[in-house]
């Protein structure tokens, strides 16, 4: 088994990152995986806003009203603990995946990588191969060059605009977004955010590309702290490949030469422009494109594949200890999500007292307390509720005990409770019960009823 580079052999920067990297197109096993994943994720991103549930957009975040609609349920700011738990779960899953397989998230599913490779695909269709694109950039300006550059950047801007509109569709009703946008009927806020995200996509995926990963993304900086000797990273087998040297396909391998034919395809296909043969480098996103390129060359020369491959050393810890930490964190987070879902209700009720007076005594000797109810209907259908008072002796609710709320409505409802018989103490605890007339679901809120001493 090939040995990992010693610490002094690990290279942290192998190139001048200021120049443009001309990425060569490559086919192969890992490229098919990437394109399949990218296609599925892109389709989900585009189609989810169009999904309807119970006659309404299934997923929408209404920032103005501070409500998150998701498959018939409405989450209000008090419910955002679930968002924090989901992000925590995703973070632990990402860290666990990094421990096992390095930066495969960056290489296969990160939006920066997916959009960058999409933009590179458009560039190859318009400007030709990577060498033709490089020659075009070096050539003086002429009609063909101007035409190709205009087509390329126009296609990038159209993809960027479409991506921005899809993203905004998660915040604005999608069935009116596109028609209003192109008919100039959208608000200035919508236009501002669409053009902002269009510019971000165009700059990130079209102009700066790998520099986003190298210099701006924090994950690229701390991910190496999660590596261990057993982490499967893209690795060049130097013992088998060296001494490298060029040769013809049918030519017998000269004495002293390894399997590496020094074709440099592994460098030409790399999205971040590194030479994996120089050792472990933090720029590597574990995308496997160099593996596909090298395996293709090995097959042409009738050599065994795997000169460049995913490889890790034997784990220093037993399997259960190696997986215990992140598995436990994931399990605990999942339990917290299940617990939150178990106690979550479609209706939220809280109660607060009138701050002007603890109580009021009428001329008939009846004691009244005033309260403000805060009620949220977290469903996308109108609901009618019935209010009950438990825990007080002969309570009388002044006004109607029926409350109607529109879909996703939050309301303050003021009530007064009257009690004729004075209690022996200064106050009596009681519970308000709000019952959904249709479903029978109940929610409770507790408070105190105060009496004159």
TrEMBL record:
InterPro entries: 4Fe4S_Fe-S-bd, 4Fe4S_Fe_S_CS, Cyt_c_oxidase_cbb3_FixG, Electron_Trans/Redox, FixG_C, Helical_ferredxn, Ig-like_fold. This is Cytochrome c oxidase accessory protein CcoG. The keyword 4Fe-4S applies. It holds the Pfam family FixG_C. The keyword Phosphoprotein does not apply. Keywords: 4Fe-4S, Electron transport, Iron, Iron-sulfur, Membrane, Metal-binding, Transmembrane, Transmembrane helix, Transport. Gene3D superfamilies: Alpha-helical ferredoxin, Immunoglobulins. PANTHER family: FERREDOXIN-TYPE PROTEIN NAPH. It comes from the Bacteria. The chain crosses the membrane at residues 33-51, 80-97, 155-178, 190-208. It comes from Alishewanella longhuensis. Residues 251-279 form the 4Fe-4S ferredoxin-type domain.
């Amino acid at each position: 088994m090939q040995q990992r580079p010693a610490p002094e052999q690990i290279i942290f920067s192998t190139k001048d990152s200021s120049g443009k990297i001309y990425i060569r197109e490559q086919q192969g096993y890992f490229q098919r995986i990437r394109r399949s994943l990218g296609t599925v994720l892109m389709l989900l991103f585009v189609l989810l806003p169009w999904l309807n549930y119970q006659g309404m957009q299934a997923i929408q975040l209404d920032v103005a009203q501070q409500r998150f609609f998701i498959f018939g349920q409405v989450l209000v700011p008090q419910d955002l603990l679930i968002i924090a738990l989901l992000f925590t779960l995703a973070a632990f899953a990402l860290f666990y995946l990094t421990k096992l397989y390095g930066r495969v998230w960056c290489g296969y599913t990160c939006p920066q990588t997916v959009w960058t490779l999409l933009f590179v695909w458009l560039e190859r269709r318009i400007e030709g191969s990577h060498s033709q694109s490089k020659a075009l950039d070096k050539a003086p300006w002429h009609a063909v060059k101007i035409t190709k550059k205009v087509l390329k950047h126009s296609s990038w801007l159209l993809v960027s605009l479409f991506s921005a509109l899809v993203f905004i569709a998660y915040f604005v009703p999608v069935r009116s977004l596109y028609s209003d946008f192109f008919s100039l009927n959208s608000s200035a806020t919508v236009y501002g955010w669409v053009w902002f995200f269009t510019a971000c996509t165009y700059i990130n995926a079209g102009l700066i590309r790998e520099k986003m990963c190298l210099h701006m993304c924090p994950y690229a900086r701390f991910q190496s702290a999660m590596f261990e000797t057993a982490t499967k990273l893209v690795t060049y087998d130097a013992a088998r490949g060296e001494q490298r040297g060029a040769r013809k396909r049918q030519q017998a391998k000269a004495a002293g030469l390894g399997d590496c034919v020094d074709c440099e395809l592994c460098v030409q296909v790399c999205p971040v422009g590194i030479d994996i043969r120089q050792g472990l480098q933090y720029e590597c996103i574990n995308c496997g494109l160099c593996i596909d390129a090298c395996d293709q060359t090995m097959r042409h020369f009738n050599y065994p594949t795997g000169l460049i491959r995913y490889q890790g050393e034997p784990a220093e810890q037993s399997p259960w200890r190696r997986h215990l930490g992140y598995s436990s964190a994931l399990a605990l987070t999942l339990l917290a999500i299940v617990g939150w879902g178990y106690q979550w209700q479609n209706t939220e009720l809280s109660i607060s007292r009138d701050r002007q007076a603890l109580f009021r005594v009428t001329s008939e000797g009846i004691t009244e307390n005033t309260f403000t109810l805060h009620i949220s209907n977290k469903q996308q259908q109108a609901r009618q509720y019935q209010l009950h008072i438990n825990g007080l002796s002969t309570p009388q609710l002044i006004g109607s005990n029926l409350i109607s709320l529109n879909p996703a409505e939050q309301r303050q409802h003021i009530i007064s409770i009257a009690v004729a018989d004075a209690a022996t103490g200064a106050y009596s605890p009681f519970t308000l019960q709000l019952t959904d007339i249709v479903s029978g679901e109940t929610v409770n809120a507790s408070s105190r009823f105060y009496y004159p001493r």
